[in-house]
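Have a close read of the entry that follows and walk me through the local backbone shapes. See right below:
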Amino acid sequence: MLYMLLSLNTIAGTMAQELKELTLEDVIPGGSTYRFTENLYNLQWWGENCIHSEYDVVYHIDPRTGEQSVLFSSEDKEILDEKARQEGIQLTGLSQVRFPWAGLPRMLLTGRKDNDKVYLVYDFEKQELIAPLTCDAHAGDMDYHAASHQLAYTVDNNLYISLEGQTVRITDEPEGIVCGQAVHRHEFGIRKGTFWSPQGDRLAFYRMDESMVTKYPLVDTRGRIAEERPVRYPMAGMNSHTVSIGIYDLSAETTVYLQTGDPTDRYFTNITWSPDGKDLYLIEVNRDQNHAQLCRYDAKTGALQAVLLEESHPKYVEPQHPIVFLPWNEKQFIYQSQRDGFNHLYLYDTTGKLIHQLTSGNWLVREMIGFLPKRKEVVILSTEHSPLQSNAFAVSTASGKRRPIGNAEGKHRVLLSGSGELMTDEYTTPDIPRNIDIVSTTTGRSQATRILTAGNPFEGFRLPNLETGTLTAADGVTELYYRLVKPADFDPTHKYPVIIYVYGGPHAQMIGNGFQYDVRGWDLYMANQGYIVFTLDNRGSENRGLEFENCTFRRLGIEEGKDQVKGVEFLSGLPYIDENRIGVHGWSFGGHMTTALMLRYPKLFKAGVAGGPVIDWKYYEIMYGERYMDHPDDNPEGYEQCNLNNLAGNLEGKLMLVHDDQDDVCVPQHTFSFLTACIEARTYPDLFIYPNHGHNVRGRDRVHLYEKITRYFKENL
């Protein structure tokens, strides 16, 4: 068994009698005294110049020494503000300024003119404003193309482009048809709905017809008369929206649509332009989500040119990443796939021929960062050192040979300079809140320059101790990672109640080798309130490979629950655990897990708080739900087994459900259906509703949420 111990009080380095007590205001985002780790905000590369900005000043960082100097001063900003005012523009500050033009003394700024939003370029050597672009005050989905100085955006459900001196409306669609926005419920890695060609002469965009999708009635209660704010929500087994892809040609002022054929029950994902802007690539997935095709279309005519490769799996395929062309070879690209059980990189040519697999092993590529053109390498973050980490490597596209370009510790985020010869390396470890270095991608750590050593945000506070380790899953084979949080004044002769914090679903990992093993602030707070807080990453969660994740296929929550019970068995074997006082809490998938554990194992759990829970997978959306549960017609037994309404009569402990009335992810019907089932079964859960919040509680109200949760456990555990 792997076993690690972190004494946070040692890190604090302050005598116990002088330590302050944590409050919820200290540990919950939105709290008035929320403790956060120091950072270099808006850190970016301007060619080979490393810079970061604050509200009224921009700093240059010397890559050799780490010394900071002022690139753009507050006095310079006063001049800029005055020039903007003369144009009727009020700037939003320098906190989000961008420097997309290497070698040019220009920066991209945002502001407002009257009620319009404005993007503008400022030449800070000539002190000149250049060609402001305006768009509607209600514009969203902003997509700026630096090379052509053009801005795509949406207003309501239609798409526009702001050019120098004019605005072009690209679509004119009625309600129920949405253009230029992310589609397929943001699944398959989709985060946006517009895609500029490299030259900026064409704009590809999603057009989503959801007029056939049932409207789900959410209600806004803020006015004297409540208003219905319906959303189009395609539930598993029901009609899905249909998607097409348009390409607007700016010179011809015409739009063509890809000739995909009937789009019914098909998902078009991971769009990429060819480097010459003549072709558009995408990955198509069928509704069963067990077959994917990489397709190439002619950008001028919309005609399908070729299906370059196909991929199938008896459970599901899940493309998450668009192809990426090699900057030194426009005929070759990198494709990511889990075909060998872990997400790895494959090099193809544009005929669809596999050149070779670039990475392999029982670890996965977490992210592809960019390229080192001179060395013909690709930079990745991977779990090669540990499933709990993300470390940087450079991979030869010719041989697949890897070399580390960051250290082997913790979790890293890296950003390459314009040439790729330098990178910022931001990392955190269990006892390092945040370090940021500038690293040579040629020599690696041997020439690292430290530009930030963040202090411990909890310096001076009395903090609990953290332990991490492994235990064996319910399958008797698989190793699972756990985290245990003990009170600062832990007494091994005392019997402590336990709160299990759980998520448990796909695309999430609760335990990592980041600062304090990625513990949540509320866990620290509750430990010092006299609880042991335990978290286990069960099978079905992220960063352990395809088999680890898809063993839950068609039975969501069941195998995961068995693993969580193994965690309870582990806890029960510890002499300081009061096994008669075990509680559980989670949100979303974790809300499903919390409710399921309370109902399937009523003798194990005394109290629980389920936030935004999925109760019946038939009420969840198609793309996610059918991927992991299959179509309800094809898996009726699984849907019945996983429907927690059928288990409502098993409730013995104290369970509080928390739901947001504007939740368009796990719609409130989940909670209401469970309350109905409990009424019929004569069981008695508690309920708390947060008005005017979406899927989770944000801002100041989040402190209230966790005060409510804390009180519930104190009263019932």
